[in-house]
Design brief:
176 residues, NADH Oxidase, 4 strands
């Protein structure tokens, strides 16, 4: 049997995406409380995400969303990682408020922000172990958040995954 890499690439990348989700899940969490949500987007949902990113440009004018919207179409899958904004109750002050109960609505708990960052780092390290291309994208994550693909999450980041001769997520030209 001969298996051509081009024929098996999608399956391989999706398996790497699953490993990335596991790495995010098992990453250390503040207080040992698991407050992250993780999912993987494939197929037509990538196009849906791209279209949402394009539509969001009208709302906020951040033109790099156009570049990123086109860019994610090169991904075999996209891992999304997010967290809600529920306070961890440490009264640590890292969010800018002395006590968790004083925190204004919409201000994220700093512990949750750190936890999602560690989960992202673990997922990207796993991708690197498998020698696939990634890039952490705020833009695609925000669009996934607006689509409510991670129910209730207020901080969502996206990691498109690809395997090609050159990482398609770097050296990108801005869209006009």
């Amino acid at each position: 049997m001969i298996i051509n890499e081009r024929d098996s690439r999608h399956e391989y990348i999706c398996n790497v995406g699953r490993q990335m989700m596991t790495a995010a899940r098992t990453a250390p969490k503040g207080k040992g409380v698991d407050i992250i949500e993780v999912a993987m987007i494939t197929g037509e949902d990538i196009k849906t995400l791209s279209n949402k990113m394009i539509a969001m440009v009208e709302e906020h004018g951040m033109m790099f969303f156009l570049r990123d919207a086109e860019n994610i179409l090169n991904a075999e899958c996209i891992v999304i990682i997010g967290t809600d904004d529920a306070a961890q109750g440490l009264n640590c002050g890292h969010c800018g408020y002395d006590k968790c109960v004083d925190r204004k609505e919409g201000v994220p708990c700093a512990i949750n922000s750190v936890d999602v960052g560690i989960a992202i780092g673990s997922a990207c390290a796993t991708a690197a172990d498998f020698r696939v291309d990634t890039r952490v994208m705020f833009s695609a994550g925000l669009a996934a958040q607006r689509l409510d693909w991670l129910k209730g999450c207020k901080q969502v980041y996206a990691i498109p995954v690809s395997a090609s001769s050159k990482n398609p997520f770097f050296d990108r030209k801005p869209k006009q």
